[in-house]
């Protein structure tokens, strides 16, 4: 019971150490060095435009696809950012079209005076 109590305390604190009962010899004979240039991580202009269009045309689904793509394919960075930019442009354009064509304030922004005290 005493050992179980100590094991639980050290597990909760996160200070556990495990030692092997046999000698371990470290050998660095199999060293693999992978160099990734910063140029490989950046998106090209065509890829940036493609991800902006994915967010613009695909909406929230395009943003989710960009997020999954960035999580799976870690060599390129910025897909999610550009798809989110495309989705923001989509929201702004749809809000402007709703305001100028239909004459109504989009997304419930006309009730903003009721929300704030000073409004």
Question: Which keywords apply here?
Answer:
119 residues, mainly alpha, 6 helices, 0% strand, elongated
Structural overview:
With 119 residues, the chain is mainly alpha-helical. The protein has a domain at 42-119. It has helices at 2-13, 38-41, 45-58, 60-72, 79-102, 112-115.
Short description:
The protein has 119 residues and is an all-alpha fold. It is 60% helix and 0% strand.
Q: Which oligomerization state do the chains in this entry correspond to?
A: single chain
Beta-strand segment tally: 0
Q: How would you sum up the global shape?
A: elongated
Give the proportion of residues in helices. 55-70%
Mind summarizing the main beta sheet?
none
Structural class: mainly alpha
What string, H for helix and E for strand, traces the elements in order?
Answer: HHHHHH
Mean pLDDT across all amino acids: 77
- Estimate what percentage of residues fall within beta strands: under 5%
Estimated radius of gyration = 27 Å
Which stretches are low in confidence, meaning pLDDT under 50 for 5 or more residues running?
Answer: none
Secondary structure: elements and pairs:
Layout lengths: L1 H12 L24 H4 L3 H14 L1 H13 L6 H24 L9 H4 L4
């Amino acid at each position: 019971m005493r050992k179980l109590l100590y094991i639980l305390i050290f597990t909760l604190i996160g200070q556990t150490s495990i030692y092997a009962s046999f000698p371990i010899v470290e050998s660095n004979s199999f060293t693999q060095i992978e160099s990734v240039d910063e140029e490989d991580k950046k998106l090209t202009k065509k890829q940036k435009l493609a991800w902006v269009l994915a967010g613009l045309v695909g909406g929230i689904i395009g943003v989710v696809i960009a997020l999954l793509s960035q999580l799976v394919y870690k060599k390129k960075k910025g897909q999610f950012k550009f798809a989110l930019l495309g989705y923001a442009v989509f929201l702004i354009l749809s809000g402007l079209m709703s305001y100028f064509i239909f004459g109504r304030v989009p997304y419930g922004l006309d009730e903003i005076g009721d929300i704030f005290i000073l409004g």
